[in-house]
Write a sequence for this structure.
């Protein structure tokens, strides 16, 4: 389904029948990570809608919007097998009838400007804009997002809270390949040698986690070492940081819920990953 009116009619009919509705927003090129989101959505609501829209406003001018893999027929088949009730795949003109440049923007201050937001200016404003629009088109009770994009998840949770949207935003655990690499549509950009190296991003985060758990106190030194190790292996790291889970600010000694976050390039693939940890209480 690609038009908004029939989508609304279907949603209204389900609502009349007393059904709750979960939305899984995607940009397509679906892999097992997306299907795990659908599976989680199915556990949370009897009706599951997946949206598929490659959103231009979240790509920078020199990023991979045109190259982003578009695989609608294969995605449709995977969603049907996964038990998704409806695929909503709107066109560019139905999402941005006035053109993206002339469409109302949604800014989530602070969180959108750090880490991936600092590396990709405007990215999270584009994500917030399109997710806000998708939420208004579909009007789901629940929306499920992958924890691999944890900063995105936080931005959306903040947007929903700030704008009083009656939607529960749920994070779903990262799905990994057998060697630890977080599943991502952009992994398709890796050549054989880069693919062999790629899991080292996750393994580097695991090393930082082990140091944190063992009580190493110097977070900046750990971050610096991790960046250097990744660079020595052939990555072009954007950052490795230890942040607190609720707002991605620098942790204070009393913060126990932390996340180790990283972004690094391998060839033309920008890989991101994170590990959440609960620190033993100090003192
Ligand atoms: O995570 C994604 O695939 C996209 O950022 C999203 C949430 C579908 C918005 O375009």
């Amino acid at each position: 389904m690609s038009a908004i009116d029939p989508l609304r009619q279907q949603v209204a009919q389900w609502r009349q029948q007393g059904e709750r509705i979960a939305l899984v927003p995607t940009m397509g090129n679906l892999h097992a990570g997306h299907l795990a989101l659908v599976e989680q959505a199915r556990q949370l609501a009897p009706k599951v809608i997946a949206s598929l829209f490659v959103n231009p406003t979240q790509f920078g001018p020199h990023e991979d919007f045109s190259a982003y893999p578009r695989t609608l027929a294969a995605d449709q088949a995977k969603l049907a097998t996964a038990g998704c009730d409806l695929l909503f795949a709107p066109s560019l003109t139905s999402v941005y009838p006035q053109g993206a440049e002339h469409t109302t923007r949604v800014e989530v201050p602070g969180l959108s400007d750090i880490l991936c937001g600092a590396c990709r200016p405007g990215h999270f404003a584009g994500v917030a804009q399109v997710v806000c629009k998708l939420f208004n088109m579909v009007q789901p009770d629940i929306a499920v997002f992958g924890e691999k994009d944890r900063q995105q998840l936080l931005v959306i949770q903040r947007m929903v809270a700030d704008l009083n949207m009656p939607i529960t935003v749920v994070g779903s655990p990262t799905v990994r390949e057998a060697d630890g690499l977080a599943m991502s549509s952009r992994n398709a950009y890796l050549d054989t040698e880069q693919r062999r190296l790629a899991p080292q991003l996750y393994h580097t985060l695991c090393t930082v986690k082990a140091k944190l758990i063992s009580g190493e106190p110097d977070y900046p030194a750990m971050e610096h070492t991790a960046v250097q190790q990744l660079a020595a292996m052939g990555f072009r790291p954007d950052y490795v940081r230890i942040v607190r889970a609720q707002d991605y600010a620098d942790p204070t000694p009393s913060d126990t819920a932390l996340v180790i976050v990283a972004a690094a390039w391998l060839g033309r693939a920008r890989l991101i990953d994170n590990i959440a940890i609960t620190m033993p209480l100090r003192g």
Notes: The pocket of pantoate is lined by residues 25-27, 55, 58, 127, 130-131, 149, 152 (CB under 6 Å). The CA atoms of residues 114 and 219 lie 18 Å apart.
